[in-house]
Amino acid sequence: MTARVVVGVSGASGACLGQAVLEILRAIGAQTHLVISAGAERTIAHELGPDGRRSIEVLATMSHRSDDLGAPIASGSFAVDAMIVAPCSMRTLSSIAHGTGDSLLARAADVTLKERRRLVLLAREAPLHLGHLEAMVAVTRMGAIVSPPVPTFYARMTGLDDMVRQIAARAVASAGLDPGPHLQRWAGMDATTTGAG
């Protein structure tokens, strides 16, 4: 059965993360429902250029307006397997933590939590103050997975694109789907390359 995943892109820096998540989900044959927050529109244009939004939207099976609270993904009766918010701004994280449902992205995340489905949040901010941390604790207690986009340095990636793809693949794996060859997995420490022994 085809997996169905909601992908949210919020206004934090890192629009390329949402794009990479959609690319991987498309490659593994998942059906995707995309919602881009109002704040993300400016970030996407700045980071990916004037055609950035279109380059993201064409990767999704279906795209929904951020103010369309009548969209299918706003209801728990619309079955999805998981939701990934990449990147997840602190504003969006706070909205999810407090269940405001003030946008389609926040409402879809709220639905994901109430239906006990996987919600992966690539929380993007640094440094963090206590309010950020408390919001992360709150959503974690509700069942979300907070996964800041931290590079896996052990994978010895050669550039930013490799790092983005690895972070996106890990998000897909955290959502309960197999990202296949897109994820470089830890195979153990090779004693001959570490000088051990």
Automatic annotation (TrEMBL):
InterPro entries, alphabetized: Flavin_trans-like, Flavoprotein, UbiX-like
EC number: 2.5.1.129
Annotated function: Flavin prenyltransferase that catalyzes the synthesis of the prenylated FMN cofactor (prenyl-FMN) for 4-hydroxy-3-polyprenylbenzoic acid decarboxylase UbiD. The prenyltransferase is metal-independent and links a dimethylallyl moiety from dimethylallyl monophosphate (DMAP) to the flavin N5 and C6 atoms of FMN.
Protein name: Flavin prenyltransferase UbiX
List of residues binding dimethylallyl phosphate: Y154, R170
Domain (Flavoprotein) ranges: 4-166
Keyword Lipid biosynthesis: no
Reaction(s) this enzyme catalyzes, per UniProt: dimethylallyl phosphate + FMNH2 = prenylated FMNH2 + phosphate
Protein keywords: Flavoprotein, FMN, Prenyltransferase, Transferase
Molecular function terms, GO-annotated: flavin prenyltransferase activity
Gene field: ubiX
Binding-site list for FMN: G11, A12, S13, S37, S89, M90, R91, T92, R124
Family: Belongs to the UbiX/PAD1 family.
Keyword Nuclease among record annotations: no
